[in-house]
């Protein structure tokens, strides 16, 4: 990885070094290295199939096989079983959102376990997401895409984790809803939350991200601070293909 100016100093909260990952015989991650500092937001970009989702899944121990090093606050995560991952302070909002379709909004919000102190109360969640308050008795099936995305984020906020991995939170959503999700992420940043986004929408990502990590063929090509995004746009278009 090429080191860039603007890189935060000090120990990382989440440290990933030379991470490899496989689906069966298929070797998908080829040595991913990245670091995420407390209170920081980074965005992973790369073309379809580059391995962005797989990187998030590997961090959460959701891959059949992975090798390398993952540390959270210095603690080795490689032997932590998948059901204990959240207890290390990390949560995941998958692209498919994973909310319970037959349960109502408030029921979905009651389910997540508390894994650390500081999880948001139902009242705090409804303050942050007024749309969810209005829809509290609606089943998941009746929610719009934006409401589902908000509920998926809200559920993680209930748990008390301090690091959240978000896979394409704006995908398929209308501009006004994207704006709302951006506002929510800015609120979370203010509260000191640490975020790793996979996001193809640069206009959205530049508002919330402190640094970008450019991914190709299962590894990180380079990282740079958001202040350099404009200067690197041609290169990004070349690699990301958008
Ligand atoms: N469940 C799976 N089984 C086998 N191969 C998979 C599986 N999921 C993803 N892959 C393969 O792993 C590679 C990386 O996919 P991944 O979904 O991580 O990419 P991505 O960068 O997130 O792109 P996208 O935006 O398309 O999701 C691709 O070649 C994909 O075909």
Automatic annotation (TrEMBL):
Residues 14-242 form the ABC transporter domain. Keywords: Amino-acid transport, ATP-binding, Nucleotide-binding, Transport. SUPFAM superfamilies: P-loop containing nucleoside triphosphate hydrolases. PROSITE patterns: ABC_TRANSPORTER_1, ABC_TRANSPORTER_2. GO terms for biological process: L-amino acid transport. One of its GO terms (molecular function) is ATP hydrolysis activity. Belongs to the ABC transporter superfamily. PANTHER family: HIGH-AFFINITY BRANCHED-CHAIN AMINO ACID TRANSPORT ATP-BINDING PROTEIN LIVF (PTHR43820:SF4). This is ATPase component, ABC-type branched-chain amino acid transporter. It comes from Aurantimonas manganoxydans (strain ATCC BAA-1229 / DSM 21871 / SI85-9A1).
């Amino acid at each position: 990885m090429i080191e860039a100016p603007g890189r935060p100093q000090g120990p990382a909260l989440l440290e990933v070094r030379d991470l490899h990952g496989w689906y069966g015989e298929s070797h998908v991650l080829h040595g991913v290295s990245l670091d995420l500092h407390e209170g920081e937001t980074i965005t992973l970009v790369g073309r379809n199939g580059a391995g962005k989702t797989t990187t998030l899944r590997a961090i959460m121990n959701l891959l059949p096989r992975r090798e390398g090093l993952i540390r959270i606050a210095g603690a080795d995560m490689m032997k932590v079983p998948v059901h204990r991952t959240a207890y290390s302070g990390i949560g995941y909002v998958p692209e498919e959102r994973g909310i319970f379709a037959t349960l109502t909004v408030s029921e979905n919000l009651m389910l997540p376990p508390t894994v650390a102190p500081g999880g948001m109360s139902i009242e705090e969640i409804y303050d942050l997401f007024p749309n969810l308050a209005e829809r509290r008795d609606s089943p998941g099936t009746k929610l719009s895409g934006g409401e589902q995305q908000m509920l998926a984020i809200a559920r993680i906020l209930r748990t008390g984790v301090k690091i959240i991995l978000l896979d394409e939170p704006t995908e398929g959503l209308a501009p006004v809803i994207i704006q709302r999700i951006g506002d929510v992420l800015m609120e979370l940043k203010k509260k000191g939350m640490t975020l790793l986004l996979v996001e193809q929408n640069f206009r959205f990502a530049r508002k919330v991200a402190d640094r970008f990590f450019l991914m190709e063929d299962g590894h990180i090509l380079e990282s740079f601070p958001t202040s350099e995004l404009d200067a690197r746009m041609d290169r990004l278009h070349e690699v990301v293909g958008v």
